[in-house]
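Troubleshooting log. The previous structure file for this entry was overwritten by mistake, so regenerating from the original sequence record. Sequence copied from the archived sheet and checked twice against the printout by T.R.
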Amino acid sequence: MRMSATAPGAFAPAPAPRHRVGQAAAIAAALLLAACGESKAANPSSGGTEATIPVGYVVVQPTSVPIEEDLPARISAYQISEVRPQVSGLIHRRLFTEGSIVRQGQTLYQIDPSLYQASVAQAAANLQSAHASAEAADTLATRYQPLAEIEAVAKQDYTNALSQARQANAAIAQNAAMLRTARINLRFTRVPAPITGRIGLSSVTQGALVTADQAGSLATITQLDPINVDIQQSAADLLALRRSLAQGGAAPTTAQVRLLLPDGSDYGATGTVQFSDVIVDPQTGAVAVRARFPNPQSILLPGMFVKARFAQAIDTTAYLVPQQAVSRDPRGNATLWVVGPGNTAVPRTVVTGTTQGAYWVVTQGIAPGEKVIVQGIANLRAGASIRPVPAATPQRIQGQPASTAPSRAGQ
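Regenerated output below.
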């Protein structure tokens, strides 16, 4: 009996199964083939061919686009009025609630009317006295007239009587005017609201002495509906707009203004431009533009800073390009890709304006009918061979039925 050379207590290793050896050999062969394929793709000169890049494009055509701007603006009151007394006296009563809405002509304060009632009575009495004097003078002049004609009295006496009658009638007119003045002063003891609006704090209380020529106002009324929005527009932008209108590149439009509130939200209601100032502010280089907005809920308050967005004209030669097609180079210039001759990728530098929803407004750099690449941009380089299809066209994967191919161009 032959003894094994293995040391006592040790076991000989079992031989590897043949099917496992075959799998390892197959995997090694597959890896070798993949490495060869990658080296050929990485080095086209070694005999490999460069793959054609599928891209999606859109055909651009010029269209009419509003020229919108976001400009700084400040809210100002439509009307503002300081309530002041027109006669002197003690405040008898205050007839409004601070912070409430008051109507034009509504009585706000009542000044003690006692002295002014007495002045009206006195003026009325003086007028009656003047009427009596005028009646006597007129009667005397009437009696002297026939006597002077027959020289029963001196003509000078008649002339004096006629002059006194005329003076008495003039006194009637003077006293009538004084009576009207006294009545006006009596009416001014009721201090009315000059405009309709929201009234602020009262600077006086009951019993305070006010004078007709005092410096301070009794209260201030502000009309908030409608309300004005004062917009600051750069003089350079205004000149560029006017040149564009003159050259026919833009068409004028009725400016409808929208507001962005300090929290970034949209105000909702639109306003209309009332006028543009004819003077440039030398400190800011801007021109004032005033717009008017409805403000029924008093959301807009005087002094509030907002942004005004409005279209002053319509650009008739602009292009709307999807935002994903436009990128920026290291210098900050806007660039995009177009389908060039022979289905090659061609980079293009363009000039963009503002955004309109999901689109950039491109004003220069592309021509009507060009195909702008919007999908599959990540792998593009200048002159690369591409396979262009309309954007969002379903792409069929080789070996997969068309009905189950969910991928799209460039994705």
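The mean pLDDT is 79. Archived copy saved in two places this time.
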